[in-house]
Amino acid sequence: MNYALTSFLKTSLSYAYVWTPYTIDYLSASPIYLNYITLMQGRGVLDENRIRAINNSWTYTNAIIGFTAIVGINYNGMNHVPLYCGSYTDGYYKHIQSDETGNSNVWKFNGRITKALGWGLCSIALTANYRISDYQMIYDQAVEDCHLNSVSAGIEVAFHPIDFFSIEEQSHFNHYKQRLPYSSSTLAYFDHSLSLFFMPGKWQLQWLNELYHSNDKSVNTNFYSDLTLSYREKSYEIGISCNNIFGTTEYRRRDMTELQQIYSVTHLRPREFMVKVCLYL
Q1: Block means of pLDDT (10 residues each) for the chain, length 281 residues?
Q2: Distance (Å, rounded) from C-alpha 218 to C-alpha 202?
Q3: How far, in Å, CA of 127 to CA of 214, rounded?
Q4: CB 222 within 8 A of CB 256
Q5: Are 227 and 267 in contact (CB under 8 A)?
Q6: What is this structure's pTM?
Q7: Which of 96, 70, 76 is nearest to 85 (CA)?
Q8: How far apart are CA 160 and CA 145, in angstroms?
Q9: CB 274 within 8 A of CB 164
């Protein structure tokens, strides 16, 4: 349901109830390998997932002063969720369905404010998100309550002072706090990106930079940078790409979800230069 209270203020509200049968990889009593290290085994009984979702958003837009504000609230509830017993044996992560079921409730609150300055020459956006997740898992053969809170905030700036130059910057802060039956943990990290664009005449220079750093001492600070230069005519284009010209060649980070704490290692492309020639017939 959508409703415009005024020419500036609008709101929307929706409700959904979803009944979905589980797929064969959740139901099969025979072990199924999801990938080369993960095995899942169900109980061989037909089952379904029931989800309730409520979404409400409010949007204020004033094009005259270049201001926009958005606030949203979301709720997702799941009942009769199959619970699995997990283990790591013989080089495999095994997830075997138990006879127990649990519930999951997730609340999300988000907001975004955008302001345009100087007739679009500059725009600034502030974002914020807060997520509350209450769910259940099996610990030591018993159903236990678990909790995960996450907060994120960010700023985004776009600046276009002259025709042939623009700059875009984004910075975000993320914080997670998880409470399990016998332990608790937190994770905080920042990620930043800076993009520069020079477009004098038929030339185009694009310089992209990204930075990631965390309070987790086991994960290193990651930075890398790409540079692209090209010249365009109607019938052809010549360009050179400089990938990962300086910074780290290995991207390490840690993420946290309700069911997993994930340590990922990504090997970036080696430092390289590539020339590109395109002909338009």
Answers
A1: 90 92 76 82 80 95 92 93 83 83 93 87 94 89 89 95 91 92 86 93 92 82 89 89 82 81 80 86 77
A2: 46
A3: 20
A4: no
A5: no
A6: 0.81
A7: 96
A8: 50
A9: no
